[in-house]
Automatic annotation (TrEMBL):
Top-level taxon of origin: Bacteria
Species annotation: Paenibacillus roseus
Pfam families: Glycos_transf_2
PANTHER family, per database record: GLYCOSYLTRANSFERASE, GLYCOSYLTRANSFERASE 2-LIKE DOMAIN-CONTAINING PROTEIN
Protein name per the record: Glycosyltransferase
Gene3D superfamilies: Spore Coat Polysaccharide Biosynthesis Protein SpsA, Chain A
Start and end residues of each Glycosyltransferase 2-like domain: 4-162
Length: 334
């Protein structure tokens, strides 16, 4: 078996049909597809069981979370290469073929992504992005930001095992933690063609400021652990498991990212209290007078109704202007 495609579903019955069909329609044929139903409460399992194809294996168990489910799928898989596919996302027909071509032709590359069409189901906006810069060491990039979306990647099983696989501590950013450790032992590659469509759903991580904050904390834990591993040969998680979180240092990186989440809370939801919470957390990581001034301003606006109403209308107007600008840009590019 050459390629194992792994996908985990939880309460995604309306996204099953098109998503799984995109895997069955791949031009590359030497694949097995393992779809895990992680204890869904809706009709996800029934939808998965409507497919009758010998390449598809459906696994179901009580709800264990994504990380435990993907670990089980890897253990059950047989392929030399492992491709991840996000639940509800679309892999274009030539995705597997093109990524196999990269890995087959360059043994030094252990993981490969592709260009991704990112679709926001809340706004309908679509944007193609391609994050990996192949001219820069991957670890150097990862210390700034993630270079892949999880569902776009294919990696060698031997590299996955050598890196230590997914770690259950990372309920979010389990992919990012894995890429950090892979970056120490292999080269990263990409297919510049758009071969994957990713959907941002209303109940996904990127739709919740609280979940995004947890995601940022875990990402920073991963970064600090890889720095520790480089310095001492082992990281805190290797030594202390889940207690490793108590060894985290205050971080300028994390402060900036959480402060940005305060802006997200205002921009998306006009949530003044959530914005204050994010800014306070940011200041706990790194004190900055300018951010404290922003906190004071947001707190004042939240407490004075006329100011809040005016500020909310202004934010709404700004969103509308930005949306019109994006529509014009899409019209010009098409």
């Amino acid at each position: 078996m050459k390629v194992s495609i792994l996908t985990v579903y939880y309460n995604r019955e309306n996204q099953v049909q098109e998503s799984i069909q995109s895997l069955l329609d791949q031009t590359y044929s030497d694949v097995e597809i393992i779809a895990v139903d992680d204890g869904s409460k809706d009709g996800t399992l029934k939808r998965l069981q409507t497919f009758h194809d010998p390449r598809l294996q459906v696994i179901t168990h009580s709800n264990r979370g994504f990380t435990n489910s993907i670990i089980e799928a890897v253990k059950r898989s047989k392929g030399d290469y492992i491709a991840i596919h996000g639940s509800g996302d679309i892999s274009y027909p030539r995705r597997i073929e093109e990524q196999v071509r990269v890995l087959d032709s360059n043994p030094a590359i252990g993981i490969v992504g592709c260009a991704v069409d990112n679709v926001d189901t809340l706004t309908g906006a679509s944007e193609v992005f391609h994050k990996l810069n192949e001219q820069e060491p991957p670890l150097q990039q990862l210390l700034r930001e993630n270079v892949y979306t999880h569902g776009e990647v294919m990696f060698r099983r031997e590299v996955y095992e050598q890196a230590g696989g997914y770690r259950t501590l990372f309920t979010f950013t389990q992919d990012f933690d894995l890429w950090l450790r892979m970056a120490l032992i292999t080269k990263f590659g990409t297919v510049h063609e758009t071969l994957y469509r990713r959907y941002t759903l209303p109940d996904g991580v990127s739709a919740s400021v609280d979940k995004m904050m947890i995601q940022q904390y875990l990402a920073e834990l991963g970064r600090q652990n890889i720095e520790q591993r480089i310095q001492e040969g082992a990281d805190w998680i290797d030594r202390f498991g889940p207690h490793s979180i108590f060894f985290m240092r205050r971080s300028k990186r994390l402060a900036g990212r959480v402060f940005q989440l305060g802006k997200v809370a205002l921009w998306r939801n006009n949530d003044w209290k959530k914005a204050q919470q994010m800014i306070r957390i940011s200041l706990g990581q790194q004190w900055r007078p300018d951010r404290f001034a922003v906190l004071c301003l947001v707190r004042l606006i939240d407490r004075v109704e006329p100011l809040q109403s005016s500020a909310t209308r202004f934010l709404r107007w700004m969103r509308e202007q930005k949306q019109r600008q994006k529509q014009k840009q899409r019209a010009l590019s098409s």
